[in-house]
Input
Amino acid sequence: MGFTVKVKRVQHVKLPAKVPGPRQIKVGFPAGEADSDNIQKAVWNEFGTKGGASGGGWGGPIPERPFMRNSMRENQSKYGSALKASAAKILRGETNTKQVLSKLGILAQGDIQEEITSLASPPNSPVTIALKGSSNPLIDSGEMRGAVTWKVHK
Output
């Protein structure tokens, strides 16, 4: 089971086509990098569920808690600035696109993990808090947060 979240960026950094190396990074739960349980938890929390047979926590609906979209939206200008600063270094041969995208992946991974940790609304229901023993909506065991990763693609 997998999913793709596409985030359109307002600010693009274009490198000349002759610059070798990968051109894309996927951050979150890339196919082949995360197990299906964590992908399912991420999808349920990112987009919410209707509950019951359609999935969700302990049988009830899970409200939408868009931790990935929030993180990307809140940090978009930071990523654009990092890419702009690196573009000149790539053109001068001081670094390459794989190194730049890897650093960006690490940065975005940390931002998503921080959003998972800090997101508090909508809160867990009293039943959920009692069952899991925590009021943090996106953290039970910490497994989903730990599964956030990145992958450089060509």
The first strand starts at residue 24 and ends at 28. The chain is about 45% helix and 5% strand.
